[in-house]
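Usage

Read records sequentially. Each one opens with the input sequence:
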Amino acid sequence: MWNGFESKEFTFEDRKAVIVYPEGKPNGRILLKTEYLEAFPDFDIAMLKRGYHLIHMYQRNRWAPPAEIDRMAEFVRYCAKEVGASERCVIEGMSCGGLQAATLAERYPELAAVLYLDAPVLNIISMAGYGGINQVLEGFWQEIEDAYGVYPSTMVNFRQSPIDNMKPLIENNIPLIIVYGNADPVVIYGENGRVLENFYRENGGTVCTIGKSMSEHHPHGLDDPQPIIDFVEKYYK
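and closes with the structure output:
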């Protein structure tokens, strides 16, 4: 069971994975939560009550190395077939999960119906502290070396963040909603989410942003997730 919902845990290509089944009749849609399955689940629970299947695959590296994203795409396709749902899913990403979500949508836009990002990491150079104002996460350099083979001296040339490849999101008309705290000291919105927000606005994309006044990196989500739900339901393709 997961928060009172029936669930199935299994192994997918050597990764721990889970499918959570909706309350009542399934609606043929999937919600993929890319990272931190147990964190701030109000939105997920609300979508389960609306008939969505919730799926998650645990990552070995949260910084979205290409091989992990390719595996995630295969996981989505597998789950869609398993539960009889569309492969086009709602992709939800919190923090580093936002990095995974945006990268998946850019590499595999055919799998993205709506993109929901919450305090998302979208600029790995910023997370390395090159902007000079964020708190670099403990263990960052070891994780990023494992993911991409880059070091402090070579990070300045890094160009594999989602903000370096935003065109597929616009070209494929993927609706985007971003929730963020305007006092976040860990993932600086101006160096991450705002770059993507501005790109959408400048290029006619469908985008909604919700800033939380005086809010830091946590908590994710909203006290009432209804605005996120409304956006997803309105723009789901």
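Summary fields computed downstream for this record:
- The chain has a mean pLDDT of 95.
- Residues 145 and 151 are 6 Å apart (CA to CA).
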